[in-house]
Amino acid sequence: MCRRGNCDGDEFSPVDETPPDSSLLALTRSRRTRSLTSSKVCIALLYGVAQYYYVHRCDSSRSLTTQGNVMQIRFVSLFCSTFLAFSISACGSGGSDGSVSPAPATSAEGLWNGTTNTGRSVAGLVLNDGTYWFLYSLVGNPNVIAGLVQGNGSSQTGSFTSSNTRDFNLEGLGILDATLAGSYVMKQELSGTVTYALGGQTTVNTTYDADYDLIPDVNFVVGTYTGSTATDGGTEIVTVTLSSPSSITGASASGCNFTGSFSPRTRGNVYDVSVTFAGGVCSNGTSTVTGVAFFDAATKRLYSAALNSTRTNGFIYLGTKTSLPVPVPVLVALDFSGTFGGGGTATGSFTYDKTALALATDVRGLAPNVTYPLTSWTFTVTGGAILPSSTFMNGVPGHSAEFCVGTCVFSAAPVIELSFLNDAGLLLHLTFDLLAPTPFANPPADLSEWGGMQQSLYRIPCPVCVPVAIFNDGSLTATSPK
After folding, report:
1. Cβ distance 364 to 357 under 8 Å?
2. Is the bond preceding residue 463 a cis peptide, omega within 30 degrees?
3. Exposed / middle / buried, residue 301 (Cβ in 10 Å: 0-12, 13-18, 19+)
4. CA-wise closest residue to 428 among 406, 450, 405, 456
5. Is the pLDDT of residue 56 over 50?
6. 321: nearest Cα among 303, 338, 341
7. Is the peptide bond before 329 cis (omega within 30 degrees of 0)?
C-alpha cells in the first residue's frame, strides 16, 4: 500500500467497470421518481471522483498529448489515507420530503444533469457557496465515467463564472486548468463553456433536479462502513463509523486513524464535514481536510472524495454500510425492600434499559400489555413461618424473570408487574401502579414513573398455588447501575 514518501509504481489504466446506478444516461432521462434520480446522480458523481483517483499514480508525470505539454502532479496521499472530510447527501433516497431554504434568485445552486457538445453525459452539483462538482462520461458512452470538473464559481444575475476550474480527466490528460463561463435560469437550466488554459473548449447544457431541495437526514447515514482505498500498490481496507449527531471516526488497515465531524448545510441536501488525521502512516500527516460525499440509501454505499486547499492532494473512499450504530443502553437501577405475612422479608435490586424495545405483547391472553427485558436482577427472600427462604438471580440455570407493563393481572387499572421464578419452583410477584405516560413505547423512564405497591405475592406456582404469602408493604428506591 502507499505510505508517506514511498509511492512509486506503474500508472493505472482507466477503470472501465460500471458500478450500480452509475450510468449518466440514466441521470439524463426523465425521473421515474425523485429519489431514484437523485441516487443515480449522487452515485455517478462520487464514482467519477473515485475513478479519477484510481487511475492516477501517487507520484506521476503525465503527458498532455493533445495539449503538447507535460504536467507534474503529486498524489502521494490520494489513496494512502482513508476517509475524508466530506458532505453527506442522502440524494432523494436518504433525504426527507420537506424542503430547505430556497436558493436565492441570483444563484446557480442546485443539482444538474445534461450533456456536452461532444456527446458526453454530465451530472453535477453547485452548492450555495459556489463550489461545484461536475462529472462527465466517455464520448458516446454514458456508462463509463471519464472525468470530473471542480472549482468555485460566482452567480450573478443569470451568469455563472469561475476562474479556477480544474478538469480531473481519466483519459490520460491528468489535471487540466481551465475557466468556466455560463448562464442559468434558477432551478430550470444551467449551461456554460469550459475553456482550457492549454487550448480547447467544451460546452455543457444541463437541467435542474429538484431532489436538491430535499432535507438531508442524518439517520440514513449513521452506521459503520467497510470499504477500500486504491493505490498503485493495491487496495487497503478502511472502516469508518458515522455516529449521531455529528461524529466521524475511523482507521485504515495500515493504522491511519482519523476523527471528524459533520453538520447540515443551510441549503441543499448536503452536509459539511471536517476530518483530522492522526499522523504516523497517514499520508495527510496531521492535517485537517474537507470535501464532499454522497450516500445511496438503496445500496447502503457511501461515496466520498476530498481535495486539500490547493487541490493537489486528497483521497477517495467507497464503502458499504455493514451495521447500524450499536445503541448505548440507558440503564435504570432500582432497589426493593418489603415484608410479608409470617415474618418474611424480601430485598433485592433489578436493572433495565429504558430505551429497550418490547419483547412481546398481550402475554397470557391479557390485553393490552407488553413485556420488556431486564438486564439484571437479584433478590433474597427470607420465608419466615410460611414459606422457605430462597433467592432469585439472573444468570442462574432455572431462574427467569418477566417485566410486564399494562394489563398484566386481572385488574381494572394498568400495572407494572415483576415476576421471578427460580429453580426451586418458587414465585415472587411484585406489582406496582403504572405512572409511565407511554408504557407501550418504552419502559418507565425512572423511579417517578413507578407508582405505589399493589398486591404482591411470594408463593408456590399454580395449580398448587399454596402456600402463599401476601406482602404487607414494599418500596422502591433509585440506585446507580452496577
Report:
1. no
2. yes
3. buried
4. 456
5. no
6. 303
7. no
Q: How far apart are CA 251 and CA 237, in angstroms?
A: 9
Question: Is there a contact between 394 and 376 (Cβ–Cβ < 8 Å)?
Answer: yes
Cα(471)–Cα(404) distance, integer angstroms: 19
Q: 224 with 218: CB under 8 angstroms?
A: no
Domain residue ranges of the chain, discontinuous segments joined by +: 1-325, 331-479
- What φ, ψ does residue 378 adopt, rounded to 5°? -155, 125
Phi-psi region of 279 (alpha: psi -120 to 50; beta: other; left: phi over 0): left
pTM summary value: 0.46
Percent of the chain scoring above 90 in pLDDT: 34
CB-based burial label for 17 (10 Å; 0-12, 13-18, 19+): exposed
d(Cα 479, Cα 354) in Å, to the nearest integer? Answer: 15
How far, in Å, CA of 426 to CA of 430, rounded? 13
Q: How far apart are CA 112 and CA 132, in angstroms?
A: 10
Quickly state the pLDDT bin for 332 (edges 50, 70, 90). very high
39: amino acid identity, one letter:
S
Average pLDDT on 52-78 reads: 31
> Which runs of E-coded beta strand occur in 308-343?
314-323, 331-340
Q: What share of the chain is helix, strand, coil (3-state, %, to 5)?
A: 10, 50, 40
Q: Write down the H helix ranges in 17-133.
A: 24-28, 34-54
Quick check: 320 and 300 in contact, CB under 8 A?
yes
Q: Report d(CA 72, CA 175) in Å as an integer.
A: 9
